[in-house]
Amino acid sequence: MSQIVIRQAGEDDAAAMLALYAPYVEQTTVSSEYEAPAPAEFLQRLLTYTQQMPWLLCEIDGELAGYGYASPHRTRAGYQWSAETSIYVAPAYHRRGVARALYTAIFELLAAQGYYNIFVGITSPNERSIKFHSAMGFVISGSYQDSMFKFGLWRDVIWMAKSLRPHDTAPSPTVPFPALRDTPVCARILSTAAGYIHLAPR
After folding, report:
1. Residue 57 near residue 64, CB atoms below 8 Å
2. Fold category of 4-114+172-194 in CATH
3. How far apart (Å, rounded) are the C-alpha atoms in residues 189 and 202?
4. How confident is the model over 49-55, as a mean pLDDT?
5. What is residue 98's three-state secondary structure?
6. Which residues touch 116 (CB under 8 Å, ≥6 apart)?
């Protein structure tokens, strides 16, 4: 039986995650970057984001199948309860539940931290991503028209939003992810999410 693990990413994982991410930059409009970041820059992103938010990876039999993370939606104080999320899956593991598993874990962790909203920007056209995010509870909230130029074309970016809790009271400060990382709650969330992965394609 294959071993499936979802866990917090660490410094030693940066090179493998960058190797997975680089083709998304160089060959697709999923990323708005033109060139893959240098290893030192990519590592710094990991170290910066994980001071506050989760950065998770999925390994199947020791091989990196995908990773995902949360980042601040905006940096000003009023937006501190809103996050953006990103997921990148290795081509060999598409349509096997890896993205769903990573997202499920990230959403639960963000909720446990006290976040209220998650946003994701999707470069148009990408009906597959819109359908996937809709199935994960996101709704289309608007678009930035002709806001991204890549591969010789101006492209719209569709924004989708997911609410993690009712907006009926004043929020409490969020809990930094390191305070949650080594708790039984976090272990349960990661273990449960791994169960969404299936190794036979649908």
Report:
1. yes
2. Aminopeptidase (3.40.630)
3. 25
4. 96
5. helix
6. 81, 82, 163, 164, 165, 167, 171
Tell me: the pLDDT tens digits for 16-49? 999 999 999 999 999 999 999 999 999 999 999 9
Coil, strand or helix at 69: strand
DSSP 102-162: HHHHHHHHHHHHT--EEEEEEESS-HHHHHHHHHTT-EEEEEEEEEEEETTEEEEEEEEEE
Q: Cα angle vertex 168, ends 137, 183, to 5°?
A: 65
Could you identify the residue written with the tokens 């305070």? 179
Domain ranges of the chain: 4-114+172-194
Per-residue model confidence as pLDDT tens digits over 68-101: 999 999 999 999 999 999 999 999 999 999 999 9
Name the pTM for this structure: 0.94
Strand arrangement of the beta sheet that strand 139-150 belongs to: 4-8, 55-60, 63-72, 82-89, 117-123, 153-163, 139-150
* pLDDT for the residue numbered 202: 44
CA–centroid distance for 93 within its chain? 16
Q: Report pLDDT digits (tens) over 125-183.
A: 999 999 999 999 999 999 999 999 999 999 999 999 999 999 999 999 999 999 999 99
Query: Helix (H, G, I), strand (E, B), or coil: what is residue 6?
Result: strand
